[in-house]
Amino acid sequence: MREGDMFRKNDEYKNAIASYRKSLEQDSSLTDAHLGIGFCQIELMDFADAEITYGKLLVREPRNERALYRLGQLHLNRQSYPAAVDYLRQALSVNPGFADSHYQLGLAHGSMKNYQESIKEFRAATEINPGFVDAWYTMGNILTRLKQRGKALEVYSRVLQLDPKHMMALYMSGDCYYSLGKYKQAARMFERTLGVNFGFTAAHTSLKKSREKLAEAEGG
């Protein structure tokens, strides 16, 4: 097991699988070896084999949270969203306090345009882990898509409290301000975006439009 774990930590996934399988030859009940093989198969994009590996483990341990979570991730990557939702809900029934299961479930719901369910799961993730930047940011994007820009700005501000140089949170904040007609704040956000990545073409374009709107307002 230790050798397999070492290979896995060094991203040597094929060697890790071979090592875990040797361990299983000695003791087929080693749960961590099965989980390790499945993890490596996912990293190698061998989704079909990973599904078989986790499926066999769940026959013996139907409430194995990590296997259920990984199957949810696997189906999310395969864009099999209803299956992802099913497995992630099962994982959460075992451990409702795992923030990443809520986050992955939010992604699955969002991909199916179940936006309210998506927001609910992202909020759950951030309640468990207030520093979960990706959950905050993705929630902001859903709120923007729903044209709830005031709420989106509140969420993006949480992202920027955690990561002041989060380029896309800066840019999306600017986009929200622009849509709300707050061109000065929009321009400031686009300027900050370019401070992070001056080569971001969309930010240059948006900054130009914001400045044009400000000039129109001053001229009027």
Describe the structure.
It is built from 13 helices and no strands. It is mainly α and 220 residues long. Among the domains are: 62 residues, Alpha Horseshoe (Serine Threonine Protein Phosphatase 5, Tetratricopeptide repeat); 64 residues, Serine Threonine Protein Phosphatase 5, Tetratricopeptide repeat (Alpha Horseshoe). Helix 10 packs antiparallel against helix 11. The termini are far apart.
Q: Give me the oligomer status.
A: single chain
Q: Mind summarizing the main beta sheet?
A: none
- Give the ordered list of helices and strands: HHHHHHHHHHHHH
Helix content: over 70%
Instruction: Calculate the terminal CA-CA distance, rounded to whole Å.
Output: 73 Å
Provide the CATH superfamily of the domain at 66-129: Tetratricopeptide repeat domain
Topology diagram in text:
Blueprint: H1 2-9, H2 13-26, H3 31-43, H4 47-60, H5 65-77, H6 81-94, H7 99-111, H8 115-128, H9 133-145, H10 149-162, H11 167-179, H12 183-196, H13 201-219
